[in-house]
Amino acid sequence: MAYAHEGGAAARPSSEPAEDRVLQFPKEKRRASLHARAGAELYRSYISQGVGMPASRQQGASTGTQQQWRFELGGYYLERPHPEHLGFWYACRYDPGTRQVRRRSLKTTDFEEAKVRLAALVASAPCSANRVGPPGPDQVLSVAALKAYLDERGSHIASEDAAERAVELFTDYLASISKIDAPVAFWTPARQLELAKWCVEKHRHSAGYIERLFNVMRSAFNDACVTKIRSDAVGNEVETALMSHAPKIVWKREAIATELKIPARRPRPATLSVEQMAAVLDSLKTPHLFRFAIMSLCTWARPQAIIDFDPATQVDWNGGLIDLAPIGWVPTKKRRPRQPLTGCLAGWLPVWNKEDEARRAAALAEDRTPPELGLIVYKGKRVATVKRAFRRIGTELGLMGFSQYSLRHFMADQTKKIFRNVPREHRSLWMGHVVRDGSRTTTNYESDDPEMLADVVLATDCVIALIQQHCARPLFAVDVLLTKKDLHAIGARVIPEMLRKQRVGGGHDRDRTCDPYHVKVVLSR
Predict the structure, then answer these.
(1) From CA 465, how far away is CA 458, in angstroms rounded?
(2) pLDDT digit string (tens) for 58-90?
(3) Which residues pair with 240 in a beta bridge?
(4) Residues 371-424: tens digit of each pLDDT
(5) How far apart are CA 206 and CA 418, in angstroms?
(6) Which of 189, 309, 436, 491 is the most exposed place for a label (fewest CB within 10 A)?
(7) pLDDT cut 90: percent of the chain above it
(8) What value does the mean pLDDT take over residues 434-452?
(9) What's phi and psi for 140, nearest 5 deg?
(10) Which residues are paired to 480 by β-bridges?
(11) Contact at 8 Å (CB) between 387 and 403?
(12) Distance (Å, rounded) from C-alpha 414 to C-alpha 404?
């Protein structure tokens, strides 16, 4: 049979066999999976090349049509649909259920950075349907697991900045050895030690800091093994774990120091003397820093507890107590105890309250926005941290290693040195530490009794009185009752000058009101 071709073409000879005409569909492209082994195209030798297809792949491309090379990972691929408008790269995935391509902007125009961000997104993607259980650590990218940890847990931990810095160092190290696509299983004990060597050689990190870096790595990999609700690269919520198990992070501070021949601990700066603390207090020029210092000296509290302190809700004037844990605070390992009010703090809180009320009233009278409510407020806004301010003060005074924690260290050190009869258990409870004496079960039967810390209250006021002898500014808003008899009872080795001439038999300068816990304040003489 002869076939007539359209347009007058010659007929095919009848001797040639007839050939069926069928539609030819292109085969589905197989995209590299995040959970694929190195042999399954997880490692790409051309990963550092530009956006265009490598020359070897462009030979078969049509000269009239420019073909765009797409970077694919774990079923997702990169695409820049609008290069003329912002030019952001997008993470894309075809959804067979809706027969549509779902996209999510990566907010970057750099192709190499888009690869890293895509890897971080793909780390949260659900496992393929034919996989039983989560993938192993040899099938998950390290940078993807670390980025997923920062995205999910970073904002919920107090050390968020430290965790971000640790992930940045891990990424820099992998880039320096050209292993940016290393899987989690890459981190064997030998590789961990190589990372520690790199940190010492390049950044001169201490053994303690390197240990904290490994703590971040351990937390990130362990979190990746937890089955929970996660969001995939395009926003779908799935219940999954990123990998089945995590490699063991073995290196600790002492082992790192021994292997790398570096000190296990850096020399700790000497605790401030009374004269140095007086110089620090005299150098505080702004009211919010002075308030922070007085609060820290009176409570020995951690900086964040002082920043969060609200006198309106955390002070019990009837019982003479303060609760360093604000209402709604979620308990952590850093405990915030209840304490008796010291005489120094009991005098300052009403004064500060009157100052704040006067500022708010003046602002409202001048039709200005009143300052925010809170104890530590600067320029009308609540202060988030005073870390840089106290570091700057320490630099100006030549105090090496001085920080916002130095006040807490100073009070604990001075109380231990001066007062022999204040037991370690009381000092630990005052600082919010867990006391290991006896059984933990006993604490379930005993109620919290802040009044047992009356000896720490008396010691705290005495130490501040010793600072006052060398300080030009007043550290007490009102006179505080201190007696030589009470100080000798708690084993005081040093008596403030204001008490050396005090008469033992009473008189007009003594308050003989019953005060078994020594927390009352003398308002007038």
Answers:
(1) 11
(2) 344 333 333 445 788 767 888 888 888 888 988
(3) 228
(4) 998 899 999 999 999 999 999 999 999 998 899 999 999 999 999 999 999 999
(5) 33
(6) 436
(7) 47
(8) 74
(9) -125, 130
(10) 521
(11) yes
(12) 17
Exposed, middle or buried by CB within 10 Å (0-12, 13-18, 19+), for 253? middle
Are residues 311 and 323 in contact, defined by beta-carbon separation less than 8 angstroms?
A: no
For residue 180, give both structure tokens. Answer: 């940016």
Q: What DSSP character marks residue 129? A: T
What stretch of H or E contains 240?
strand 237-240
The partner residues of 144 in beta bridges, in order of sequence, read none
DSSP class of residue 478 equals S
* Distance in angstroms (rounded) separating the CA atoms of residues 416 and 492: 10
Radius of gyration for the chain, computed over Cα atoms and rounded to the nearest angstrom: 34
What are 466's two structure tokens?
A: 């010793």
Q: How does pLDDT run across 97-140, given as a tens digit for each residue?
A: 678 888 888 888 888 888 888 876 765 565 544 455 788 898 88
- Taking the C-alpha atoms of residue 139 and residue 225, their distance in angstroms, rounded to an integer, is 13
